Amino acid sequence: MNVSDILENEYSGHFGTYLKQAGDGKLIEELEISLHEFIRFVQNIPMDKFDYRYAEGKWTIKEIIQHVIDTERIFAYRALCFSRNDKTPLPSFEEQDYADNTDANSRHLQDLLMELSAVRHSNLLFYKSLSDEQLKRIGTASGNQISVRALGFIMIGHQKHHQKVFEERYL
Q1: Domain count of the chain?
Q2: Domain harbouring 161, CATH code
């Protein structure tokens, strides 16, 4: 399954940006490849940049990596619920509240990257376990309809979005 297989009724408009950034490879392959590309990219960032903020109130690179981890966990929980045919509408989350309640800047970079890798590998195993029917299931999160397979590609696109932000605003 590729991102081009996802129908417009499987996601709300604002997630289209992340879907476009996910590329058009197969979901399982892109989940794995994008993780390795991101880790390699981050490991090549100069050490003095990890605590840098390009403007007042903006997150550091470490805080953004933590944000990517937290967001992927939330997307994975949504995918789990919907794949199991849970029809309970799920709430949105306030990303700034999450960022304000981490200690990302005091963490070692390798610990952040290991955590990201563990979360992604868990999600890879989860997505590999799903049938085509489960991947196409749709649930409600943040008041919007979204499919399990769209959430997988959104994880990839969200990560790639932040890598692009690193390139454009931090390096």
Answers
A1: 1
A2: 1.20.120.450
The model carries a pTM of 0.96
Long-range pairs, 56-65, Cβ under 8 A, ≥24: 58/169, 59/99, 60/104, 60/105, 61/166, 61/170, 62/104, 62/105, 62/107, 62/109, 62/112, 63/99, 63/102, 63/104, 63/105, 64/162, 64/165, 64/166, 65/104, 65/109, 65/112, 65/113, 65/116
Within a domain: 5: no
Q: What's the domain range around 114? A: 14-170
How does pLDDT run along the chain (171 residues), one tens digit per residue? Answer: 999 999 999 999 889 999 999 988 999 999 999 999 999 999 999 999 999 999 999 999 999 999 999 999 999 999 999 999 999 999 999 999 999 999 999 999 999 999 999 999 999 999 999 999 999 999 999 999 999 999 999 999 999 999 999 999 999
